[in-house]
Amino acid sequence: MAAPARTSPDIVHLAGLLKAGKLVAFPTETVYGLGADATNSDAVLSIYETKGRPRFNPLIVHCADLAMAETLVEFSPLAYRLARFWPGPLTLVLPKRFDAALSDLVTAGLDTVGVRVPAHPLALELIRAAGTPLAGPSANPSGKLSPTTAEQVRAGFHGSVPVLDGGPCTAGVESTIIAVDGTTATQLRAGALPRSDIEAAIGQTIAVAAENSAVAAPGMLASHYAPDARLRLDAAAPRPGEAYLAFGLEPPGAPGPLRNLSPAGDLREAARNLFAMLHELDAKAEVIAVAPIPHAGVGEAINDRLKRAAAPRP
Ligand code: TXA
Ligand code: MG
User: Fold this and answer.
1) Alpha-carbon torsion 18, 148, 176, 223, what sign?
2) Would you place residue 221 in the very low, low, confident or very high pLDDT band (cuts 50, 70, 90)?
3) What is residue 85's DSSP assignment?
4) Mean pLDDT across 26-55
5) CA-CA distance, 262 to 274, in Å (whole number)?
6) Alpha-carbon distance 227 to 209, whole Å?
7) Which of 122, 137, 202, 289 has the highest CB neighbour count under 10 A?
8) pLDDT tens digit string along 126-152?
9) Pocket residues for ligand 1 (CB within 6 Å)?
10) Which-ligand-closest: CA of 114?
């Protein structure tokens, strides 16, 4: 077996910042996260301040492996079956252990914790080097689009947060969030891992939490993931003056700025491109018309994000 690669000086440096209570943005397979030592309340508080995030909205805790997660939450047999998707784009909301070393700010007072093991090698290396689980919301100012490149993170926080650059995110939408209560599993947020894949793996159906059930997923505000431009959904073609976000075949002769989520009509490619293309078109037009997206597989998450991005602002 090859000797394990030495931790790069970059990661050692950034892990040192985390241990000192500073924020570090890190890559995951879904979107970039804004990381802090989840055991340190001052550090976690600066996540909320830096993002402008409401304090009632709890944070996902990123672990290096199942063993680290087991120190924080109680796993039922169903939870263990779901954890087979780790490392991967699945967050499990599980009962907090009585002896969990976690700042109360992470859970915003709930008695459950959202935990996941991300599937990006640099994220895992960073967590191991820091030696502590990392609280990590998406690395964007609250209410804005999630970043899928290091450059978007730097732009969003005006360079004030150091970023571990792991290249563009391969999944492109956030993790699927599943709450486990005894033998029932409920989806709180559609995400990169399709619900149908999870159902097939565990051999049981997953309920979907009611829209905006504040208790279930405090972060699922109707208007969220918002670009500055207005979105017009299910648009077969753009109107004059509109940008167009296509999927599959493009309408002939579209006059304005146009991007195609996936010319081949591949939903995974579309998910990967979603936020970056919305970012791009946002800079070019007041209204972005968006092609209809099939609801299958990761299409459920894409349509969820588009609906939120299109919702009227508070
Ligand atoms: O892919 C992802 O999940 C990314 C990467 C960085 O891991 N993270 C992410 O975090 O999307 P954030 O903070 O943008 O979204 C977390 C969501 C929020 O809607 C929050 O309310 C919900 O997870 N959440 C966290 N802990 C929870 C809990 N104990 N119970 C219910 N919902 C929870
Ligand atoms: Mg977010």
Assistant:
1) positive
2) low
3) G
4) 96
5) 10
6) 25
7) 289
8) 999 999 999 999 999 998 889 999 999
9) 28, 30-31, 33, 57-60, 91, 93, 107, 110, 112-114, 118, 136-138, 174-175, 177, 188, 217-220
10) 1
Q: Ligand 1 atom closest to Cα of 177?
A: 23
Q: Which amino acid, residue 294? A: P
Name the residue with tokens 């409920």.
186
The residues, any chain, with a CB within 8 Å of residue 94's CB and separated by 6 or more, are: 73, 74, 75, 76, 79, 112, 113, 115, 180
CB 19 within 8 A of CB 37: yes
The pLDDT tens digits of the residues spanning 242-291 come to 999 999 999 888 788 999 999 999 999 999 999 999 999 999 999 999 99
**Helix, strand, or coil (residue 186):** strand
pTM summary value: 0.92
Beta bridge partners of 94: 113
For the chain, give the percent of residues with pLDDT over 70: 93
- Looking at residue 215, its amino acid is V
Distance CA 288, CA 305 (A): 14
Give pLDDT, residue 212: 58
Rounded to an integer, what distance in angstroms lies between the CA atom of residue 25 and that of residue 29? 13
Token pair listed for 102: 């976690």
**Type of residue at 40:** N
Q: Three-class SS of residue 176?
A: strand
| Rounded (10°) CA dihedral 137, 139, 144, 148 | -110
3-state secondary structure of 181: strand
Report the nearest atom of ligand 1 relative to the CA of 171: 1
Ligand 1 centroid – CA 219 distance (Å): 7
Which residues touch 269 (CB under 8 Å, ≥6 apart)? 261, 262
